[in-house]
Amino acid sequence: MENINSAEATDQEIKKYLDEAPQGFTVSEEVSKDRTSICNACPEKVTTLGIDRCQVCNCLIKLKTKLTHTKCPIDKW
User: Fold this and answer.
1) Summary mean pLDDT of the chain
2) What φ, ψ does residue 56 adopt, rounded to 5°?
3) Which of 3, 9, 26, 42 could serve as a FRET partner for 60 with CA atoms 20 to 30 Å apart?
């Protein structure tokens, strides 16, 4: 049996979810990178077990920054 950690398992689930998302459901790679950079610099970002989350909305940053119909809960993007 393959030994994976929580962060790897979460990454795999996010990738699967995004791969199956309908067209228009996700933003471009450039927008996603810009959003992620903003989140990475934000004091509300926390990392637990290798997984980055927002303390305000409790989202998974890796997922939320890729979705079209989402926004930062404190209006940073």
Assistant:
1) 91
2) -75, -50
3) 3
Total-model pTM: 0.83
Tell me the one-letter amino acid at 62.
K
Please give the residue range of the domain that contains residue 61.
Answer: 1-6+21-77
For the chain, the domain total comes to 1
Taking only the tens place, the pLDDT of each residue in 11-48 is 889 989 888 888 899 999 999 999 999 999 999 999 99
- Distance CA(7)–CA(25), nearest Å, equals 23
Strand ranges inside 1-77, DSSP E: 45-48, 51-54
CA dihedral 59, 42, 15, 64 (to 10 degrees): 40
